[in-house]
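Researcher: Let's continue the batch. This sequence belongs to glutaryl-CoA dehydrogenase (ETF), and it's 395 residues. Same format as the previous ones, please.
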Amino acid sequence: MTNPVAAPLDLAGIDDLLSDDEKAVRASVRQLCAERVDPYVADWFERGTIDDIRGLAKELGSLGLLGMHLEGYGCAGMSATDYGLACLELEASDSGIRSLVSVQGSLAMFAIWRWGSEEHRTEWLPRMAAGEAIGCFGLTEPDAGSDPASMRTRARRTSGDGSDWGLDGRKMWITNSSVADVAVVWAQTDEGVRGFVVPTDTPGFSAPEIKHKQSLRASVTGEIVLDGVRLPDSAAFPEVRGLKGPLSCLNEARYGIVWGAMGAARSSLQAALDYANQRIQFGKPISAFQLTQQKLVDMNLEYTKGLLLALHLGRRKDAGTLRPEQVSLGKLNNVREAIEICRTARTILGANGISLEYPVIRHANNLESVLTYEGTVEMHTLVLGQAMTGHAAFR
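Model: Same format as before. Here are the structure tokens for glutaryl-CoA dehydrogenase (ETF):
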């Protein structure tokens, strides 16, 4: 028997494309996850709760992972590629942990950083970067998912001089909502869709948690209910109007998913390879059988291609040349292939593949949510179809 290569999951030598600083970022996140997440996450998933989520947020903040690709206001100001590598390592532990970081940094913090007033930025971003305040992002509604222009949440001027607003409506499937200190809420107004920074202790704001999930169980998911919420005019984002605001935030989050999905894939592929080398059947490890090797190789091929795509998009984002349809390309491909890798890994583990003693079924379940959120397969397909043909087929 010839010895396997030293890095069986990096047959293409992708590590050679990373700088020493990028590898150091990856190693730091991997160590934090190994110490703070991996020993506990299967139990969190099984119980449907994260123990001490605020403590975990502060630890993530102390490592500079919250809003890490943003500049100033206590944010780390690191590269898009650094952020992508962090997302990969976080999701290798669990999609729910990556979602916590992604919603905090790429949705709530990015929205405030990009569209908020200076008052918004100085009040919230340093605390959010440190993990001392948790944010959520309210866009999706019970009847408005892929079609956010149909949102029913409404903000109306409540005084003749325009000094305050009244918000009414509901948001659904909102990560972090029931533990958040601040919510970025998008609402219809007479001036078009606008964003609002809403402290969650504002009267009329509530965030009931959504129960009975079978995916992303190590993640806090809830509603946002706005019942006569009164806000000063200063709570509104001052300039942005229409869907440009929320869609710019979603593009940031989708970029992180391009990388994160490959983390779930890598974890499942590694579990399958380890199991195949240890599981003895018919007198030898099942990794010595041709059909098992074919599964392992096919999984590795798709993982390698997905990682190369993520790295390419990261370099483009750092260069300022990344286009929205390219993010759709990455999100559509990498999540779809990651799910297939997890399913194939499950077959190698046999019945053990459905046990939480191994990460595979947990990753597979989580990725069913990741496939849908931040743009469904159908929507990303149509984005790419329009980019290819010039014809918008959304309606």
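Researcher: Any comment?
Model: The two ends are 58 Å apart (CA to CA).
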